């Protein structure tokens, strides 16, 4: 679900880097690693979720390039639309994930063996909801209004999705991880340069 905007949002997660050499290495790897994160773990590939394209189409976006604030707002609205349409959250806040609807959908879209893929992703949703409860402020951006977005959107779904992409890169099951030089570099980036999601749930 996360693409271009993950690169600009990693600064908002739990940064664990203090060594000067590692800071430099992380900075050099960031752009490539966040790009590859879309494909290195098979369980979080955007192609698995068809709802995002439908939600994007419903926004009737102008045909031009967007700045960071616009991209963030667009993706926030796309994620909210998709979560609501999928039954993951109610239309109105306070938002809480519906684990039953999530598991039902995962049983349809996840690759085999589903006993492992569905279990991992179900746990990932749960852990990221807990992570957000305690660290939502780290994901929050205060951005200007975007004129072509008619209705304001809540960042809840986008924050969950960002967390899931990071957690999946840190913990992707071996059978669903692309074992290549580039993907191993990407995994090391998320392990060494980004705070560990699993150990920060409280």
UniProtKB/TrEMBL annotation:
It comes from the Eukaryota. GO terms for cellular component: extracellular region. Coiled coil: none annotated. Gene3D superfamilies: 1.10.238.270. The keyword Repressor does not apply. It is found in: Secreted. Residues 1-20 form the signal peptide. InterPro entries: Odorant-binding_protein. The keyword Ligase does not apply. Keywords: Secreted, Signal. Belongs to the PBP/GOBP family. This is Uncharacterized protein LOC115625063. It comes from Drosophila lebanonensis.
């Amino acid at each position: 679900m996360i693409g271009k905007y993950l690169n600009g949002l990693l600064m908002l997660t739990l940064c664990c880097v203090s060594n000067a050499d590692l800071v430099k290495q992380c900075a050099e790897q960031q752009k490539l690693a966040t790009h590859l994160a879309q494909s290195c773990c098979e369980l979080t590939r955007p192609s698995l979720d068809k709802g995002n394209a439908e939600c994007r189409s419903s926004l009737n976006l102008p045909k031009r390039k967007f700045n960071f604030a616009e991209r963030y707002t667009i993706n926030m609205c796309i994620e909210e639309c998709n979560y609501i349409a999928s039954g993951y959250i109610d239309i109105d806040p306070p938002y809480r994930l519906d684990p039953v609807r999530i598991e039902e959908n995962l049983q349809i879209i996840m690759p085999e063996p589903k006993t492992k893929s569905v279990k991992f992703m179900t746990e990932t949703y749960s852990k990221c909801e807990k992570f957000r409860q305690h660290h939502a402020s780290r994901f929050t951006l205060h951005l200007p209004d975007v004129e072509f977005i008619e209705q304001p959107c809540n960042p809840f779904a986008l924050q969950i999705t960002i967390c899931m992409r990071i957690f999946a890169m840190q913990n992707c099951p071996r059978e669903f991880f692309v074992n290549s030089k580039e993907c191993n570099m990407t995994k090391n980036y998320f392990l060494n340069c980004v705070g560990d999601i699993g150990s920060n749930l409280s």
